[in-house]
């Protein structure tokens, strides 16, 4: 009969089997019990167990969750008896009493007709405590063999090899047709039927050979050696070490030779690990078909004994013999193969479990890292959320970033100006980005989703839309910043972009609303302007000035407005201490209301013009009106600012700025109330020259004005008019001839200069605002 694998897929111990289960220690005993009972209960068999050192609770644990052991105990599908109530109920072992117990129990089970098959198990570990007569054990086991075959019951007898002597083991081998070792059920070549055993007993009693024959003793000794080797192999975790140990058992195989152990890979048909030359020597191997896992018959030649694992055949042990091996030799070979297969399967299982453990550890480590990252991300999110909701502004952002990273942090505007700083007393000289670095950063920002490292700094741009509004800088001179710090920087840049977008939105809203206020005030409707200002909470009772910024030539109103706003923001209080600003953009110009502690002249307007020109990258003109102390004054100040702007545009002043209070005689002339007095004075002194210019399309009056404004310098006047000295001399001679005035006389020169300035003032007043489109441009 073929060997069967105990407790695996397919048949194990079947009805009619009487099996002697040998084991070393509780672990092997529990494995036999678990497999035998789980298969029976799962298959609906009646299970009757007489156990010595195992409680029902332990049995439930052994069988596991696949079977409801408590339900089986309640229904009596599973019965568990102790040896004190069965084997040793009289204090000593009685074969007759035990046989009577089994027969009565099985008769009751059969009469009930509930179960189709019955599984019996008896644990004999009590033998070392109560030594029964040899004849009683032999009679008991001989009866059990016949009883199992007659009633189709399966019987598993459990013997601990550490408690069984050689003599009893001989008897056990002769009274059990099959033996179970390490999960394998095998045929027993030493088994004797009841008649054969009785005849041998008679022969033994009438001869001098009253002890077991030496050959059987040697085989039993070798079998014990194999079992000890099995324990050593099972303790190994490497397959090559197990194979090496198995090869050391070759002398135990008698006339059989151990040629090698060949282990299959984890996938593939059984036997694919065998060399091709050996496969061809085996039945069916020359056709390349998978080898049968059934052991070969007892014939001379080459045999491939299967190595069984939990998932089937995992390899083969190749044995050769010149003669037909004996049953004992074949048993030793099969036992060695069985033990080797069990050890290899255990090592393979350990390897898989170790791999699974390593994977689990890696997963746990990754999970821990993920949890840590999530906690860090949450800490970042919570901190910056508090900054955003608490209206802490840009300073709060850099302080949060510095606290989260332990590094210094800064915010720069798009021009490289330091706006906020945290993490040190004073920013180092190289903290700010250079113009070239900003240009490179802004160029790479649309294609770079992550911060960019520049030397010892990490830079992240704040760009809520297409425009870059600022840069968040994390100083990392030692390059210690890792993913957590970069994550904090990215989150901070997002919050900064939101903050700057909010500020821009507020500024744009204020600009849109303020534009209407300015339009009403400078347009001559102070009541409407005042009402709008009050609705905005804007104070018009403070002193103000109207300032006009003009970009000569073709211009972009949005670009000019942006330049004016950025320039005003960069100068801040230095423009007008305590000032607030309101804008009215128009094509080519921006009308600006400057509030606060204002004064007429000074370097502040030059600084403001220089800042605007830096933003624009081109020239601009500025006209500043006089102080407004009530809403009705804004129209006047606006008119004055326009006059100043036209004055600068017409005269070409070198500084490009005109402040109304600094116009001198021009201011006086523009404020004369008698409308006819000034034209009469001009006619008195310049009438002949004006008529000459009109009739001859000349420019004698303009030449005279420029000559007098330059203090009578020929070189300066010629340069200002872009003409040569000879041309200038010719024109001055014609002026003397046409007007009859002596240009060398001081009084004459004074009156002529006053007349030319009055002529310029009337000319500018008559010209009106710059002749450009007047539509209002959205900021």
UniProtKB/TrEMBL annotation:
Domain CdaR GGDEF-like: start-end pairs: 530-646
Pfam family, one: HTH_30
MEDS domain location: 17-177
InterPro entries: CdaR-like_regulators, CdaR_GGDEF, GAF-like_dom_sf, MEDS_domain, PucR_C-HTH_dom, PucR_C-HTH_sf
Family annotation (SUPFAM superfamilies): GAF domain-like
Family matches, as Gene3D superfamilies: 3.30.450.40, PucR C-terminal helix-turn-helix domain
Domain PucR C-terminal helix-turn-helix: from-to ranges: 700-758
PANTHER family, alphabetized: CARBOHYDRATE DIACID REGULATOR (PTHR33744), PUCR FAMILY TRANSCRIPTIONAL REGULATOR (PTHR33744:SF7)
Similarity section: Belongs to the CdaR family.
Protein name (record): PucR C-terminal helix-turn-helix domain-containing protein
Species in which this protein is naturally found: bioreactor metagenome
